[in-house]
Amino acid sequence: IRVLLDIVTWGTATDAPLFREHPEWYRGRAWGNEAFDWSHPAFRAWFTSVAVNNLLFTGADGYRCDCEPYYAGYEVWEEVRRRCLSAGRKVLIMAEDGAERRYAFDMEQDGVLWYAVRDRGGQYADPVNYYLEKLDIVDSVKSGEGIGSPACQGRGEGGRYRFYTCCVSNHDYQRSAVNLNRLALGYQAIFAPFIPLWYLGAEFGMQTENQVLYFVPV
User: Which pTM does this prediction carry?
Assistant: First the structure.
């Protein structure tokens, strides 16, 4: 078993102590709250150190990076990886959105998502399993269609990594994309020319469709 921490990079709530202590580290709004200013050198240095120390202190195996790579970007996570390796820790870093990977990310949560057809918002509201409902897996890998980051798909470079992640559910999904159908997993395991991984971020207590944790008391 490997343990990943979920880390948020877009900002904090307005009443967060960090916002009161360092308002200069913020600029604008994100998701209805205060957005981090990633151009601020002191903030970047602080965040990077905290991200590294969290892993070294807890012994966690890495991060699932919310909304990345569109806030902190690549350089921050490259530095987190370098510092962890220098301390003797090899960590796993997963981007939520489609990423170029580089030295920053090992994988993306949404490795199979057909951006030409729908964005993540559409997928979260009405999840589909692309290799059962939308894409032919062989044609997809040949053309790069539906695999990897939006930029990779646009260049026809999808399917070149050793593994990709198919997101079955996450905390924003309003239902599962598999729904106990083992064929949905087995089809990919048998026919994928890359190593298929599945991300399940289902929430406890979600008994009905169209529910996410934000709307249901625990």
Answer: 0.83
**The pair of three-digit structure tokens given for residue 85, joined into one six-digit string:** 């390796």
Reported as a single tens digit per residue, the pLDDT across 30-68 is 988 999 999 999 999 999 999 999 999 999 999 999 989
Residue 116, classed as helix, strand or coil, is coil
Distance, in Å, from the CA atom of 123 to the CA atom of 210, rounded to the nearest integer, reads 13
Rounded Cα distance between 49 and 51, Å, is 5
Q: Which of 12, 16, 17 is nearest to 27 (CA)?
A: 12
Burial of residue 40 (number of CB atoms within 10 Å: 0-12, 13-18, 19+): middle
Which two tokens mark 52? 């590294």
Q: What are phi and psi of 112, to 5 degrees?
A: -115, 95
